[in-house]
Amino acid sequence: MKIKLYLFMLTAMLVSKSIVAADIVSDVRAGGDGKSSSYEESYIELGVSLVVANNPWDIAAGEEYDDHDLNLDFDVYGQLKKNNFLIEVTQGTMDGLNLGYTFLTTPTWQVDFLAGSLNGSYEIGKDYKIDDNDTESERNRKIYERNRIYVGTGLRVTHYWGKYVVQARILNDFVYQSGTGGSLRIGRGWQYRNWYIFGIFGGEYRSAKTNQMWYGIDSDEATARYPSYNAESTFNFSSQLGFIRPINENWVLRGYIGYSNTPASASKSSLVEDEDTSYSSISVNRVF
Amino acid sequence: MVKLNKDKFALVILLSLIGSLAMAENELEHAMDNMNFSVKPSRCIALHKGQKCYQTVEFSWRLVSGGLYCLYSSTSTEPLVCWQGKALSSFHYEFQSAESITFYIRNETLASTQAKTKVDVAWVYKNRQKASSGWRLF
Known about the structure:
The complex is a heterodimer of chains A (288) and B (138).
Chain A: E1 2-3, H1 8-15, H2 24-28, E2 43-54, E3 70-82, E4 85-90, E5 97-105, E6 109-121, H3 136-145, E7 148-161, E8 164-173, E9 179-192, E10 195-206, H4 208-215, E11 234-246, E12 251-260, H5 264-267, E13 277-287
Parallel strand pairs in A: 1-3
Antiparallel strand pairs in A: 2-3, 2-13, 3-4, 4-5, 5-6, 6-7, 7-8, 8-9, 9-10, 10-11, 11-12, 12-13
Chain B: H1 6-35, E1 38-40, E2 43-48, E3 53-60, E4 68-73, E5 81-84, E6 90-97, E7 101-107, E8 112-125, E9 134-135
Parallel strand pairs in B: 2-8
Antiparallel strand pairs in B: 1-3, 3-6, 4-5, 4-7, 7-8
Subcellular location (chain A): Cell outer membrane
Family (chain A): Belongs to the MipA/OmpV family.
Organism (chain A): Gilvimarinus gilvus
């Protein structure tokens, strides 16, 4: 077992590679009580988790995350809501970091403007620019480790339909011009004694521009290992099943398993192996 | 012969009542102290306010005199269990509630409450507050 600590965005990139979804996880966590999450105010959770992940990235080139390995990870969840402004951090599940504003709340609807929905990783100051003097292995490393970040701006609409939560997001990256993405997800929570179980199923669209940022390889940076690749738009499905159980007033036990298929267009990239993403995690978190 | 006017008479009656109530309360507290009526665990943790909390709890007590006793919860007029004298000194109960509940032992022979205890419901995510509805602008 290797002990590694990751920033939430890095983990989000490696585990889920998702630009969509949001706090639907925290919504369905409420046990499917059919109420808006805006009833909740602010909290932050810190914890440690045991993660087993199988992701389609070309692991041979990357050293950050070993396929099928059991990893000790660092967990961060949280949301801060003040005067309808929101900051949400959802780690290891389906979302990265959301900065936004809730401008409509009814008992069954919530509409948020997401000023910034961040997913991916960004390392300031690290040299990823390929130049002519780079060796082949240096080129490969730079292609694999280059900054990949999606800063989506758009709308998120959540409907609380009985015990179900339906959430749609439409985002566009105006900062890095990384295209458009969207998702439609449905989730439901169940309570069995003090176990809160949730399931989420959804579909996700990514434009060709967005996929180019994730999986594309420009012709001027291509190597023998990573030949030039122009990505197309994709649609994929994902699902997640999880639980949360209070240990006491300050600690919770969380667990989830998830699966998402890698669209054919993405799997043609040499950065991606032809397999789907699956992950499972169990964590103990302190709630502040 | 001492004559009391209406005001003084009312005052005497009031003071007598207060004295009686204080004595009754002291007796009840004394009885409660003697019974050692308790519940373990006395706290049930749910995830959010409003969600039902589940916990197997055990009530225990010590009785010093005979009679018919019943254990009640404050949410029902039906007793959870009744027993005669010292026949029972503990009781397991499946607590299920979204709110804290008081439990009490009543001496049915004397028609008086003998002891009280409480199971509190607490939540992990505590700041759940009702938000106002409608459109909002900056």
